[in-house]
Design a protein that fits this description.
It is built from six helices and no strands. By secondary structure, it is mainly alpha-helical.
């Protein structure tokens, strides 16, 4: 009986996961966003095609250059996870691992900010204003992205 319940649960989970992937693919297709560049396309929709090409190129270069920093962040996160989930909790190890995650995150963020400055340098003033507005826009959940289709009405409970 236990095995049957487990198999049914795994089947339901598998079907649900497949439906999520299909939904993401269909959603991106309907909104005309390529899977790898949905966020880039959304942020640069008001930028000329020539400028978009330049930005795409510099962003590809940055992704390659920032690969070691991203790996270091993942490594630090893994070390933190190990320190937290070990059988014997050692607080000093957790504190040290949190500091490692902060350092790695700060290094990656600094690299991303340098990339942003380089990209903004290539834009015309009106394009910079548009990109800034897109970067600063948050929906009701505090997530970056296009405005929510169903904005919160006065009196609705906060979402989060």
């Amino acid at each position: 009986m236990n095995r049957k319940v487990l198999l049914v649960a795994l089947l339901v989970f598998s079907i649900g996961l497949n439906l999520v992937f299909i939904g993401v693919a269909v959603g991106r297709h309907l909104f005309g966003m390529s899977p790898g560049r949905a966020h880039f396309e959304w942020m640069t929709q008001e930028v000329s095609e020539e400028t978009r090409r330049k930005l795409r190129s510099t962003m590809r270069e940055h992704m390659q250059e920032s690969l070691p920093a991203r790996r270091e962040l993942r490594k630090a996160q893994h070390q933190l996870r190990s320190a937290i989930t070990t059988d014997e909790y050692v607080e000093t190890d957790v504190v040290a691992r949190l500091a490692g995650v902060r350092r790695a995150s700060a290094d990656l963020q600094e690299s991303m900010h340098k990339q942003m400055v380089e990209n903004l340098r290539q834009l015309a003033p009106e394009e910079r204003s548009h990109v800034l507005g897109m970067m600063m826009r948050h929906d009701s959940r505090g997530r970056r992205g296009p405005p929510s289709e169903h904005p919160r009405r006065p009196g609705d409970p906060p979402q989060g």
